[in-house]
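Table S2 (continued). Query chain:
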Amino acid sequence: MHELFVTARAAEQHANLVDAARAAGVPVSPITDRAADGLSETVTPQGIVAVCGLLARPLDEAVTPAARLVVVLVDVADPGNAGTVIRVADAAGADAVVLAGDTVDPHNGKCVRAAAGSLFHLPIARVRDVPAALAACSAAGLRTFAAHGYADAELDRVDLTEPTAWVFGNEAHGLPADVLERADLAVRIPLYGKAESLNLATAAAVCVYTSAMAARR
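Corresponding output:
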């Protein structure tokens, strides 16, 4: 954290945070409510805004041979979805999340809020080169499973006890054909009711948690 901006009301309500910042040597600057409105992206700001360093790590530091579960997002455009998947990955005990291709910046305000703190709990890597992201997962000893609604293999019939990298695609278009070809296996979640599909965050939660529970069994 480089600097903290805080209104008088927020300084009183969050005195422990302000004291912790000062104790860590972080400059704390008082601001007006109007200034807080301008600095914040939310409709009702909390009155406390921090300037922080970026969290993304190099790919080779995030995906290592010690990893058992990694989540890869390819061309995911919605920051709320990306943040929610990061939160799911964290909750399931994943070792890293890789944002590949044209996936939204994890430092986007909506993504940060949707991640609900999970950005600080596990390594996040950004890489434009999708094949490089998949190659890094394979080199680390992970099987790459591509979530695909039209795959032949169904989730409940796949061995998920091995170290796995789950690959999820764009909300509207899914994964490109070349990514599906590069993955070790394309897997679909069986739909037992009348819904045509699951949204990205829900599908990711089902797949990632199924892997996490299978590994722990």
